[in-house]
Amino acid sequence: MSEYPKSPLMGQMMSQPLLVSSIIEHADRHFGANEIVSRRVEGDIHRYTYRDCHRRARQLANALEKCGVRMGDRIATLAWNGYRHLEAYYAVSGSGAVLHTINPRLTPEHIAYIANHAEDQFLMFDLTFLPLVEAFAAHCTTIKGYILMCDKDRMPASTKIPNLQCYEDLIEANSADYVWPLFDENSAATLCYTSGTTGNPKGALYSHRSTILHAYASAMPDSLCVSGRDTVLPVVPMFHVNAWGLPYSVLLSGAKMVFPGPSLDGKSLYELFESEKVTFSAGVPTVWLGLLTYMAQNNLKFSSFKRTVIGGSACPPAMMKTLRHQYGIEVVHAWGMTEMSPLGTACTLQTKHDAMSEDEKQAVLETQGHAIFGVDMKIVDDAGVELPWDGKTYGNLLVKGPWVISSYFKNEGGDVLENGWFPTGDVAIISPDGYMRITDRSKDVIKSGGEWIGTIDLENIAMGHPAVQMAACIGVVHPKWDERPLLIVVKKPGQDVSKEELLKFYEGKIAKWWTPDDVEFVDALPIGATGKILKNKIREQFKEYKLPTA
Length: 550
Prior knowledge:
Number of strands: 25
C-alpha cells in the first residue's frame, strides 16, 4: 500500500494480483471433476462439476458484458444457496464488476433502499422471490434489467417487472470463450450490507485481496478447517456475509459442495446430509435447533457428519453438548461480523488442553475462541484505555486486520475507526492465552446498580433447562437499580416449567444478584434476517413491563 515506506531492497517475486477468478480457475484445473450438488427451487436435485461451474460462469461473464456491465458496476442477487448463485459469485466479481448479495429476509423497503444506495445495475433472483421483486421493483431507480434464475419453462407469462430476462437464455446464448481480466487486487469484489436492525443498513465493500486472504485463513486447520476430503453443506446463506466465505474456501480446497436451496427445515436438511454424506457444515444456532428437534423426534443419528461451525450468535452450551456428546460432532464456536468478512475468531483446542477434564474443555469450547491469523483484537474501557487479558476484566472489543473494513460504502457514518481499530459493539473478556468470550452486545448489556450483567450467560443457562427451547434476556427499568434482568422463554413442545423452577435453576451457576427478577413465557421470539433474536423488538414489546416488587 502506498502509505507504507518501501525498503531499499525489495523482494524479487512475481507480482500476481490476488483475484477471485483465480479460485475458480484453480478449482477447474485441479479439481475439475469434483461435484457441486444443489437442491433447486424447482424441488429436484441438480448435479454438476467444478469444470461445469467454471464454464457457465464464463458464459455468464460474456452475457453481462454484452448487457453493458463494466468494471465496478454493482450487480445484485436475491438467491438461495445453489449452483446458479455460485456461478454469479465468480462471473460478476471475476469480470471486475461487484457482486451485491441482498438478504431477501429484509423488508421490501430496506431492499429498495439498499439497491438504490448501491446503485445496482442488474438484479439476478431466484423464482421464490418473484413476488418480492414485483413488490419493490418500481422503487428501484438504477436497475436496468432483471434476470430470473430459472429454466425457460418456468418464466412467468406476465409480470410487473420491467426488462426481465431468463438466466438460462443468457447462458445458452453466450460462449464460454472468456479470459478473466487482470486488475488491481484492491478493486472491489463484493458488497454486503448490515442487517439494518437499527437505522438503514450500511455497506461493507470487500476487495479481491481481502476476500482471497479471508479464504486462505478460514480454510486453515484451526479455523474452519476445510479440506479436499470434506463434503461441505453451507447452511449459512450466500446472501449473509458471503456464506462466511465458504463459496471461496471450499473451491480453493477442492471439497465437494452441497447446497440446500430454500429447504432449511430439519427434515430437508437431515435428508440432504445423509444422501450426500456431508461431513462439514456451518450455520447459526436457530437452524441447528430445528435440525436437532427433528432428529430427537424421530430418533435419528448422523452417518457422516463430523464437524460444524456455529456463529452469528452465541451457541447455547446445551446445544453444543448435545451435538458433541449425543451425536459425536465437533463444534467450532466462531465469531465475526459483516464488517469483518466475517471471520474473526474460531474456538479449537490445543495440545495443552489434552490433560483437562471434560468440563474444563467444555468451558474453553464455549468461548468464541482465539483470533485467526490476520485479525488482531483488544478490549478497552469507555475511555479507550486498553484492558488486561486476565479472563475476568471485560471491555469493549476492537479489531483490525486486512479483511476488516476501514469505512462503510460511500462513507456512511463517517470515520468509524478508533485509532486504526474497528469498534465491534461487543463486550468481551480475553483469557491470558488469547481465548475471547463475548459477554454481550454493548447495546444489550444490563446496567444494574452501576455494575454490568451479561445477558448471554443468563440466556445460555436458561436454554440448558430441559423444558426450554429458546430464551432471551433484556434489561427493564427498576426504581432502585436502574435496570434488572427479565427473562423471556419459549418452552419446548409438550414440556412445562414454572417461573420458580426456572429461577431456581440459576442457583450456584452465577452470582446471586445476576439472577433474573422475573420470567415471561411466550409462544415465539422475533427472529431477524440473519437468524438472530431481535432484542430491540423484545425491548419494545416489554418497554412498559413492571417488575414484581419484593
